[in-house]
Amino acid sequence: MQPKEPCARQGVFVAQRAAALEVFGAESLKDIGGRVSPDTRRDTVDTSIVGEDWLPERYVLEWQHAVWTGPAKQDDRLFNQFLHSVIAQGFGRIRRFLLMMVTPALLLDRTAELWREEHTHGTLVSRVDGRSALLTLTDHPYASSFLAARVMAESLRHAASLSRTRQVTETHLVLPASLQVKLSWS
To answer: What are the boundaries of each domain within the chain?
Structure first.
């Protein structure tokens, strides 16, 4: 049974927490904890083990904003370093190794399947055409938040850059009911 509120698998939160510790240090958790709601702090900051299989996506949005305004100091380079660490933590060593074996096209063809493993709501569709892809996310909070859209676009770009390619660029567009991310690679 699908929950009413959009949720993300606990691994997303474990990866965010581990990335914050890696990139910003232990003190960052205090900073982040002071910028999120009491529920989010209780479930994702105050404990090192996330107890629920699924937690609300609003927690992810709060974390993104807290990291952006807190430890990352609204610095794109620092924030991207955090996002790249989240990807590394979330994929794990085996998956990262497998990423190096696939092409961006193969990876992006599988994004919808990967999305459904990590999120209860939203539809992610990808259309690959040669050395580019258009990914569209609908019916999800990430499609209505400027910061979440930026995070999603950079996360997709970075994941594709870990595959067998040289350079991946992205552009994204937040529309009234969807997020579109265009990736190109050489």
So the answer is: 7-95, 102-185
DSSP state string for 10-38: HHHHHHHHHHHHHHH-THHHHHHHTTS-H
Q: Which CATH class is domain 102-185?
A: alpha beta
Global pTM reads: 0.92
| CA distances, 16 to each of 13, 92, 108, 110 (Å) | 5, 13, 22, 22
Mean pLDDT per block of 10 residues along the chain (186 residues) reads: 87 94 97 98 84 90 98 98 94 72 90 92 96 97 94 95 91 94 96
Look at the block and give the residue holding tokens 């350079």: 167
Q: Say how far apart CA 11 and CA 120 lie, in whole Å.
A: 13
